[in-house]
Design a protein that fits this description.
This protein has 274 residues and is an alpha/beta fold. The chain is built from 9 helices and 9 strands.
Length: 274
C-alpha cells in the first residue's frame, strides 16, 4: 500500500518562521512546500472557483509527480447548486492535463443530514464529477447507514475517514473506505473548541499514540493507497504531525511504501559565522 501524507492547505502566514523560512512570501510557499510533501489539499477552492490559469500556474510551480486534491466550492457542497460545476470542472481538468490531479473532495457540512433529497444531490455530483476520483466527507452522524460504503462504491465515490472529537452529532472517528483508496482527514479532538471559530477548532496537536492508532488500523492487503491529510493547520501543527506520521510509518520498515517528496528539500540556511 502506498502512503501519501500532506496537509490541508499550505498558504498560512503562521507557518512562516517555523516551517517556512522567515520572510517567505505567499507566492514562494507552494514551491517550498512541494519539496517537503508529495501532495496537498487545496482549500481556497471552497470559497471561490479557481480558474484554469490559476491551477496551471500551481502545477508548474511543483515538481513532476506532485499531486493536488481539490475541495469542491461551497456552492456545490453546501448550497447544492449546480451553477459552478462546469467552471470548476474546467479548472481542475488543467491539473489532470499536467498529471497532477489526485482527486476531488466533497466536504459536506454538519447541517446536511441524510435525506432522500441529499442522496439525490450526491448522485448528481457523482455523475458530473465522479470520474475525477471524487471523495465525500460527511459531518453529520445520520449518514452512518448500514450500506453506506456499498452505496458509495456503486456511485464510484470514496468515503473519507475523519479524525474528530467524540461528539454524538458528528460522523464518527474511525477507518472506513468504499473503494480502492483510503482517504483520512485529521481535524482535531478538541471537543470544547469544535463549535467555536475555525482558528480554535483546528488548534490541536496529535500525540504519537493518536497518530499510531491510524497507522495500526490500516488493513493488510486492502486498498491500493492511503491518503492522510492534516487539517489542524493552526500554529503549523499540521506540518509537525504530518512529518511525525511519516516517521511512524517508516519505523515499521518496508511494510508500507511511504511516498517521498518528488524534489529535494532546500538546504537549511546557515549563519555566515558558524
Amino acid at each position: 500500500m502506498d502512503i501519501w501524507i500532506g496537509t490541508s492547505g499550505y498558504s498560512y502566514t503562521s507557518w512562516v518562521g517555523d516551517f517556512y523560512p522567515a520572510g517567505t512570501k505567499s507566492n514562494k510557499m507552494l514551491p517550498y512546500y512541494s519539496r517537503h510533501f508529495p501532495l496537498v489539499e487545496l482549500n481556497f477552492s471552497f470559497y471561490r472557483v479557481p480558474t484554469p490559469d490559476t491551477l496551471r500556474k500551481m502545477a508548474e510551480q511543483t515538481p513532476p509527480g506532485f499531486q493536488f486534491l481539490v475541495k469542491l466550492p461551497q456552492t456545490i457542497s453546501h448550497e447544492e447548486s449546480p451553477r459552478d460545476i462546469p467552471a470548476f470542472r474546467a479548472a481542475v481538468e488543467e491539473l489532470r492535463r499536467h498529471d497532477k490531479l489526485k482527486g476531488l473532495l466533497h466536504q459536506m457540512p454538519q447541517s446536511i443530514h441524510h435525506t432522500k433529497h441529499s442522496e439525490a444531490w450526491l448522485r448528481k455530483v457523482a455523475r458530473e464529477l465522479g470520474d475525477l476520483h471524487l471523495a465525500v466527507e460527511f459531518r453529520h452522524r445520520s449518514w452512518l447507514q448500514p450500506h453506506l460504503t456499498d452505496w458509495l462504491a456503486d456511485l464510484g465515490l470514496d468515503l473519507v475517514s475523519v479524525d474528530v472529537p467524540d461528539i454524538p452529532a458528528l460522523f464518527p472517528r474511525g477507518l472506513m473506505w468504499s473503494g480502492s483508496r483510503i482517504y483520512v482527514r485529521l481535524h482535531s479532538r478538541n471537543r470544547a473548541a469544535w463549535y467555536t471559530q475555525d482558528a480554535s477548532r483546528y488548534d490541536y496537536h496529535y500525540s504519537d499514540a493518536q497518530l499510531a492508532e491510524w497507522r495500526d488500523a490500516l488493513p493488510h492487503g486492502g486498498p491500493d493507497e492511503a491518503l492522510f491529510l492534516f487539517n489542524n493547520c493552526q500554529r503549523s501543527h499540521a506540518v509537525a504531525n504530518a512529518r511525525r506520521l511519516r516517521t511512524l510509518f517508516e519505523q515499521r520498515g518496508p511494510e508500507w511504501n511511504v511516498v517521498a517528496p518528488f524534489a529535494e528539500a532546500p538546504p537549511v540556511q546557515r549563519s555566515l559565522f558558524e
